[in-house]
Amino acid sequence: MALSPTELRRITQRGVSNIIIREDFVRLLQEGKPLRLKMGFDPSRPDIHLGHVVGLRKLRQLQDLGHRLILIVGDWTAQIGDPSGRSATRPMLTHEEVMENAQSYLQQFFKVVDRDRAQVVYQSEWFGKFSLADVIGLTGRFTCLF
């Protein structure tokens, strides 16, 4: 089902500062096929902030159009204190602390997005079995300029 021009503007312009490759996104929306939309979050704290809610509201609009949401819990990087481009490393958390924070996040997320049209996956499902050799091999693919 193609979107009306008004609905298309509402989705792509209201509450949006930038869409990377906007033309592709609009084309995909107009094709009417369900999209899989992904949002990752770092459960290093128990509460979401306003920035999360802005993105979640947009994802809810897209859910209401029939698209599927995948929430990616960054539990693996939260446990190892991944700096993600920051000047200081985040504190390392225990698995239990990360999972408590993740559950708190999800409770808050599901006040905005529809739980029944969302899938939750954990980053540790992909990286949890990494050995030190795997981590070093992965980091060897990137360079850092200071």
Walk me through this protein's architecture.
With 146 residues, the protein is an alpha/beta fold. The chain contains 7 helices and 3 strands, in the order H-H-E-H-E-H-H-E-H-H. The chain has helices at residues 5-13, 22-31, 50-64, 75-80, 95-109, 124-127, 132-139; strands at residues 36-41, 68-73, 118-122. It has a 3-stranded parallel β-sheet with strand order 1-2-3. Helix 3 (50-64) links the parallel strand 1 (36-41) and strand 2 (68-73).
Q: Count of helices?
A: 7
Q: Biggest β-sheet: count, sense, barrel?
A: 3 strands, parallel
What order do the helices and strands follow? HHEHEHHEHH
- Our measurement of the CA-to-CA distance between the termini, rounded to an integer number of angstroms, reads 49 Å
| Mean pLDDT metric | 85
How many β-strand stretches?
A: 3
Strand content: 5-15%
Uncertain spans? none
Q: What would the principal axes of the Cα set say about the shape?
A: globular
CA radius of gyration = 18 Å
- Strand order within the widest beta sheet: 1-2-3
The portion of residues assigned to helices is 40-55%
Structural class comes to: alpha/beta
Q: How would you summarize what this structure contains?
A:
The longest helix has 15 residues. This protein is of the alpha/beta class and 146 residues long. β1, α3 and β2 form a beta-alpha-beta unit.
